[in-house]
Amino acid sequence: PEIRGGRHPARVVAVSGLSNVLLETRAFDEAVPLAERALEMCSDALGPDHVFTMIMINNHADSLAKIGRHEEALRIHRENLERRRASLGEDHPDVAQSIASIGTCCLRLDRLPEGEAALRDAVERYTALYGPDSSDVVNNTMNLAQALRRQGRLKEAIPIMARVVEAERRTLPENHRYIALDLETLPYTHL
């Protein structure tokens, strides 16, 4: 789609939102250029170190990861992590988000020990920020368990996955599909 108009932050949000919708509908050829355009518009309007620009950088890297460009996504997430640390400080939630994104990219690239370390760090940070039952903690803890499982460390992975299911039971409706999916996955960790 053609982008018209200025670089007002509301327009950047609209372009980024459209990119996300296109990603979800698997219209990758249109989505990735829009994510790049949103980042460019935001950086031009607000500067490269503005918190909103850093969000657009994260979104752009996520769009690259969704189309399988994991090395590029990992590089961008690492650069953005350093930018966020310098600008926002170590305890900011966006720093935890960047670390979690790095961990997820590493898992996709089969860099399991590196992914595990990043995910442990992200889980620790998110737990300190939001408590043990937050969705960020639960999602990254499940990714951590998967990293351990893929390394053959089942004795560590199984109790972590069980904790995820218990957290989901405390926070989600009884018949929520995530609980059912995780309960289905748990027995296969023994393979």
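^ that was protein a. below is b, sequence first then the tokens
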Amino acid sequence: DGTASYLPLPDTFDEAVDNEVRGRFEDTALVAPVEVVPPAAVATPLVGAPMPGSATATEERPLEVDPICTLNPQCPWHTVSLDAALGSSAPVALVIGSDVYCTDDRCGPSLRSFVAVAGEFPTVTSIHAEPFRNPKLESFPEDVSRTEVTEVLGVDWEPATFFVDRAGVIVARADGIVGAEELRGLYRRIA
């Protein structure tokens, strides 16, 4: 019915804490653990940092990623590699996600929302990168190795979405679930 199955909680914390977020939906109490770590403990580049260059699989250079897109039909965001896009002085939006393993109503729609929204921002170079080299549902997780971009960026979850300005600086990140309206707002920050 179009109702989000998550609630965004953008916040900045002053110190590292283990805590929980509590809420109520209709008659149901909701509790979610929240772990906040110091920036130095985060392997993935933070907002305000330069975006590291990395090759991503494209139709011309699949980089041993097969398939280069787990969406059916394949999305159009596999024509430019991240390293080439960062050298072009155009803003970049990168989503790392797979439609094979992340298909539930929380994270599955994030990749499909990215694919749909990306076309609304033609001045931004949009890129979809698979997190695994050989994403096959029947062999997960035994026969899965991570792609170069997941290694370089220290990403070990999906979806992970980065928004990079013309200077190559990360302006925003969406770690995990993100809906179409949130994506549009993040795209507007770099378009």
